Amino acid sequence: MEVANNITEFVFLGLSQDPKMQLMFFVLFFLFYAVIIVGNLLILLTVCFESKLHTPMYFFLSNLSFVDIAYSSATAPKMIADLISERKTISYWGCVTQMFTFHFFGCGEIFVLTVMAFDRYAAICQPLRYTTIMSANTCALLALLSWAGALGHSFVQTLLTFQLPFCSAQVIDHYFCDVHPVLKLACADTSLVNLLVVANSGLISLGCFLILLASYTVILLSLRKHSAESRRRALSTCGSHLTVVIFFFVPCIFIYLRPSTTFPLDKAVFVFYTTITPMLNPLIYTLRNEDVKNAMKWLWSHKVLGEEKKR
């Protein structure tokens, strides 16, 4: 039977139908998105210009900051624009592109956070071999594998969704194109695709989360042999990372490790881990990391203030 597709665009219901709430959300999320861009760009520039931060840990932190900018940009600009638009529409291919980029950078964040945990494990549990284990070539390879894995995941996820026929239903009860809301519009049996989505997204999230928890358990057990000062520094770094991990993975697992059902809480959960978490990441890593704070102070005093004095 030939697959038919009569849809040229989709319509979002968005976060709210109340004009006053939409205006409030517009101001709020515009500020949130500005903080995401400025905060993560600040970390990227700090790591780039401060030679003391040219280490594996900060190389992956800069990858995370780039992912946070791109990940939030897959949904936030469209959502913000729609909050002041009368009709919230997206073209068929625009929806395909949004889903692909959202899952590409989302899965990229999962893999980067997992690699960052491996880096902390090597630094704390294998300190004498750390420079050998986390060489420049190894870091580049791990980053490349993370991006390649994210590309494969996103390609499969998008292909599984849009190989289905869409007949007449075009209203998406969401504020962006994601798998479960779009699958509800397909005029075909989606039970097998739903299972594959759980396997592709849910199990990746759960598997990486369990690996992260196991690695931090090993790290915490190994810290008993270290000095008090070493324990303090390690706990500060690992605490920041673990906070980010929990903020990102728990909502991911809640959304994707279940069949294609929707709950009233879903939109709030999506807002949290697509907008709030990327905004909090720079704050978490700067407020709890002395190296980053000192590097930012040095750059501000030598680069910014120094340039002003020359003028």
Overview of the structural elements:
The chain has 311 residues and is mainly alpha-helical. It has one domain (9-160, 168-305): Rhopdopsin 7-helix transmembrane proteins (Up-down Bundle). It has eleven helices and three strands. A three-stranded mixed beta sheet has the order 2-1-3. The chain starts with 8 loop residues before the first strand and ends with a helix. The model has no long low-confidence stretch (mean pLDDT 86). It comes from Phascolarctos cinereus.
Shape: globular
The total count of helices amounts to 11
Q: In what range is the share of β-strand residues?
A: under 5%
Estimated radius of gyration = 21 Å
CATH architectural type = Up-down Bundle
**CATH class designation:** Mainly Alpha
Q: Which fold does the CATH topology refer to?
A: Rhopdopsin 7-helix transmembrane proteins
- CATH homologous superfamily (4th level) name: Rhodopsin 7-helix transmembrane proteins
- What's the structural domain tally? 1
